[in-house]
Automatic annotation (TrEMBL):
It is an enzyme of class 1 (oxidoreductase). Its EC number is 1.5.1.38. The lineage of its organism: Bacteria, Bacillati, Actinomycetota, Actinomycetes, Streptosporangiales. Signal peptide: none annotated. This is NADPH-dependent FMN reductase. The keyword Manganese does not apply. It holds the Pfam family FMN_red. Keywords: Flavoprotein, FMN, Oxidoreductase. Residues 20-156 form the NADPH-dependent FMN reductase-like domain. One of its GO terms (biological process) is alkanesulfonate catabolic process. One of its GO terms (molecular function) is FMN reductase (NADPH) activity.
């Protein structure tokens, strides 16, 4: 296992002209495995020269989020960030065979085709390998319905394959480090292709 010190930053920068990638963390916990894994992946994306921004659904005003109030300034700023982003990393814990209610509420507030033309990298964490299929059979159809036409093969991270230190650094088992690194490679390659198309 290799230790990797990462945090889930509010904003990390690459070069000035780099497109922005938005990471959405759907965990309700302030400190969570989901946030740590999302931070690891976000750091790897930033290392490829992309601007990265992270939004934690738990930090959004709950009443406005549950009401789907896109006119609320904080919710509106998240909607604008999604529209501006070249691609998204979407991370969620899996509870009882479903992705998080917080993530669902955030996706519900977005415009119908908000994900069109944006590469999407789904990530999920959980304590049972029985949850692996949630990415393909629960989350993916929702993303497709929102216009996502380039969804990178998602990665399910079993909690036993990651150790989170008190300082936020994580230690990854090689069995999951490899799949995460490959997912980042495919995702950033897709971002480059989309960027070339829109140039």
């Amino acid at each position: 296992m290799r230790r990797t010190d990462v945090a889930a930053p509010a904003l990390q920068s690459g070069h000035a002209a780099a497109p922005e990638v938005l990471t959405i963390v759907g965990s309700p916990s302030r400190t969570s495995l989901t946030a740590s894994v999302a931070g690891y992946v976000t750091g790897r994306v930033a290392g490829q020269g992309f601007h990265t921004r992270t939004t934690a659904a738990r930090e959004l005003p709950p009443a406005a989020l549950l009401a789907g109030d896109a006119a609320h300034p904080v919710i509106g700023s998240v909607v604008a960030a999604v529209e501006r982003a070249a691609g998204l990393v979407i991370a969620t814990p899996i509870y009882q065979g479903a992705y998080s209610g917080l993530l669902k509420s955030l996706l519900d507030v977005l415009p119908r085709h908000a994900l069109q033309g944006k590469p999407i990298l789904p990530l999920a964490t959980g304590g049972s390998m029985a949850h692996v299929l949630v990415l393909d059979y629960a989350l993916r159809p929702v993303l497709v319905a929102m216009g996502a036409d380039h969804i990178v093969r998602g990665v399910f991270v079993h909690q036993r394959l990651v150790t989170v230190g008190r300082d936020g650094g994580i230690t990854l088992d090689p069995d999951i480090e490899g799949p995460l690194e490959r997912a980042v490679e495919v995702f950033t390659a897709a971002l480059d292709v989309e960027g070339a198309r829109s140039a």
